[in-house]
């Protein structure tokens, strides 16, 4: 595609091989129509959606075995859509969302690469209510707490879009903002199960990365 370079990456998730088109490196940038600028995405942050991140792989691996039967699922900040593709392969009811102007095209291209139907997608700025989106049984995200204000934005989004009986699964590489998010969700009635996780081969215990599972209105946690 014009303006930037891409590459295909092979990943094995849940015992299945996935082909993912990603940006070739973190120096890529192209916004000829100014869409990213209008969305508030700076040139320094533009390329981040188009990378494969360890936290995204951890989330996708969790989704490969998570109990999703009968659940309406929302992925926030989907980027290249790896977790949504895993859920689409499992025939789950998943909606992917992001606010990057290229996220949808990369997501659908990756669905085609893996011979999957197109994934339902919504442009979803976290700070703007979307009454049409509805509510979900399970909301997931990888490394979505990378700015201090994201805990506040996302807790408000969950209040709008999570069902009274709901689960939230977040992978966090240890940026230090998860405690604020956990306290905000506690006020909404969620309990938390925090598991320290290895996010890459160089990680050594005690791991900084966390798999954060929040539940509301449920007697016991579902195994990932």
TrEMBL record:
SUPFAM superfamilies: S-adenosyl-L-methionine-dependent methyltransferases. Keywords: Methyltransferase, S-adenosyl-L-methionine, Transferase. It holds the Pfam family Methyltransf_16. GO terms for biological process: methylation. The keyword Cell membrane does not apply. Belongs to the methyltransferase superfamily. METTL23 family. This is Lysine methyltransferase.
